[in-house]
Amino acid sequence: MKSYITIDEILNRKHFSRTEVIAGVNGLRRQLKWVHIVESIQISNLLNGHELILTTGLGFKDHPGQLVSFLQQLIDRQAAGLCIELGTHIHTIPEEVIALADSRHFPIILFHHEVPFVEITQDVHSLIINKQYQLLSELETYSQQLNKMLLEIEDYKQILKFMQSYLEVQVAAVLGGNKTDFFPEPDSSEKEALLFSLRSEEKKAGAASQPVQILGETYAELHIWTECRELNEFDLLVLDRTANAFAQHLLRDLYVKEKKMAEESEWLTNWLEGEYTDEVIKEQLAFQDPMLRLNGGAVCICKLSPDAAGQTQNADSTYFKLLFRTVFEQFGFHLFTVEVRHHLIFIAGNKRNRQDWKDRMSGAISRIYSGSGTERQRASSLTIGVGKFADRLGNIPYSYQTAKETLALQDSLSAEGKSCFYQDLHMYRMMSLLKKHGDLEETINEYLGPVLEYDRKYNGDMLITLKTYLACSGSKQETSKKLFIVRQTLYHRIEKLELLLGENFMNSDKRLALEFMLMAYDFVRNTEGTIPLQHKIE
Predict the structure, then answer these.
(1) DSSP 8-state assignment for residue 357
(2) H/E/C letters for each residue in 220-277?
(3) Which of 298, 299, 316 is nearest to 307 (CA)?
(4) PucR C-terminal helix-turn-helix domain spans which residues (predicted)?
(5) Which residue from 201, 30, 176, 188 is spatially nearest to 105, judged by alpha carbons?
(6) Distances (CA, A) of 521 to 5, 64, 314, 435
(7) Which CATH architecture has domain 153-257?
């Protein structure tokens, strides 16, 4: 169905029965969106494109040569055509005007007698409005048929086949993992050309595409194209409605999968607790999905923020389950989900190469945090911990334990050491052990106590000076730049540090201990807020 009318259609209307097309015959299929009466010479700023211009020639009756400039403006602004009433103000059309119109396939239509422009505009505008009404009626019918299909079908391909038969165009759906479905299915040689065309960024007049989005993520891409005609507004509206129906069908499938996973949470819990061998796990997964092939995996724990009543909202829990599944699948992971109190536990089975698993999972987590609007606000309340990668599925329980440890450390990390991956928290894991099984605060006091007490007593900057000096590997020039102080002030502070820590504090062994204690100081302060001081400065 066309959403517009063309010049040749209005030539069949009663007011055009005695007209003559003197130029631009090859442009009679031009799209017409509105009718505009013009008597001014300068009109380029008044046009939006696809207007049929009606004129008596009043603006150039004394200067017929200006008709060329007038026509060029219409062509440049992509007007649909020009209708001129002869005999009122002008009597002939210059040859150069006809030649220009023919060269640009721009229709010029002559009225050889006086005609009522008001009646013409009313008639054509009524035709345009009726066409738009018909378009909306057809679109509503199409939408109703789609909605009915959504209640009955099991396979999304039926939706795409319906659009293909309705529009009579080539349809392609590119899903995650670069899987592409064609409707109708072309032969192998033609398919390669079509795939190349889809990957090309060059836009064609007979092609259009629409993303299929679920929870803010692009899950698939729908493409339509045809060599027979240009796509019109109705085609694009049908494509949009189909993409929405496709998204609803996929979302329904995701909800069904989540419900199924909830029913299977008991065996997943047993898997996390280490009660199954590799063979048992593989048998269970093969029973669920014979086509699933996993190459190791890791556990990701997501802590949800409770509401004022201390309970996480069910809607948020379901939302994040679907969001994580949608995003992680695009990065090559198959998710199994278990919900425990305020925590969502995801067993992320790896479907691709092991070497880049961390980069892919980091990309997935970044995608979740970088949503737009309310999505970003909801994700900002999450705390995530990722355990050690398990080469064998039977080692997932160890990944689960390390994920819990990583999550517990998140609130203790400094901005420099922030990471949600277990393997990035080398020193912090050691500090956690020292804090559990030793007196970490006492050790921090032993090394940093004099500096902390000096800063407390004199409101000084010795600790930040020490940290910066060590980070700059003892470079005085770089340290003074980072602290925004002159070199002489830095020399004075270093002398003070030598008095507090000893002249050998930059020796390799002691320097290593001080760097570790500075990290430990941040770790304990983030955990408990303050460290009791045991040193006094006289």
Answers:
(1) H
(2) EEEEEECCCCCCCHHHHHHHHHHHHHHHHHHHHHHHHHHHHHHHCHHHHHHHHCCCCC
(3) 316
(4) 463-519
(5) 30
(6) 76, 89, 39, 11
(7) 2-Layer Sandwich (3.30)
For the chain, give every residue range classified as CATH 3.40.1390.20: 5-126
Amino acid letter, 388: K
Using the Cα atoms of residue 277, residue 283, residue 284 and residue 285 in order, give the sign of their dihedral.
positive
CA pair distance 31, 42, nearest whole angstrom = 23
Measured CA to CA, the distance from residue 349 to residue 152 in angstroms comes to: 32
Q: Where in the chain is the domain with CATH 3.30.70?
A: 264-424
Comma-separated ranges of CATH 3.30.450.40 domains in the chain:
153-257
Domain range 5-126, CATH architecture: 3-Layer(aba) Sandwich (3.40)
d(CA 401, CA 392): 15
Distance CA 418, CA 146 (A): 48
68 CB contacts (<8 Å, ≥6 apart)? 94, 96, 97, 100
Determine which helix (DSSP H) or strand (DSSP E) holds 30, and give its type and residue range: none
Q: Are 37 and 117 in contact (CB under 8 A)?
A: yes
CA-closest candidate to residue 323, choices 215, 213, 251: 215
Using alpha carbons, list the distances in angstroms from residue 90 to 83, 100, 108, 245, 255: 13, 19, 15, 56, 71
Cβ burial, residue 41 (10 Å; 0-12/13-18/19+): middle
* Residue 83 backbone zone (phi > 0: left; psi -120 to 50: alpha; other: beta): beta
Q: Model's pTM, two decimal places?
A: 0.46
CA distance 518 to 1: 72
Q: Could you tell me which of 109, 107, 64, 105 has the C-alpha nearest to residue 85?
A: 109
Quote the tokens at residue 325: 């599944």
CATH code for residues 264-424: 3.30.70
Helix 396-409 / helix 426-437 crossing angle, nearest 10 deg? 80
Q: Name the residue type at position 366.
A: S
**CB-based contact 281:274 (threshold 8 Å):** no
Angstrom distance (rounded) from CA 446 to CA 448 = 6
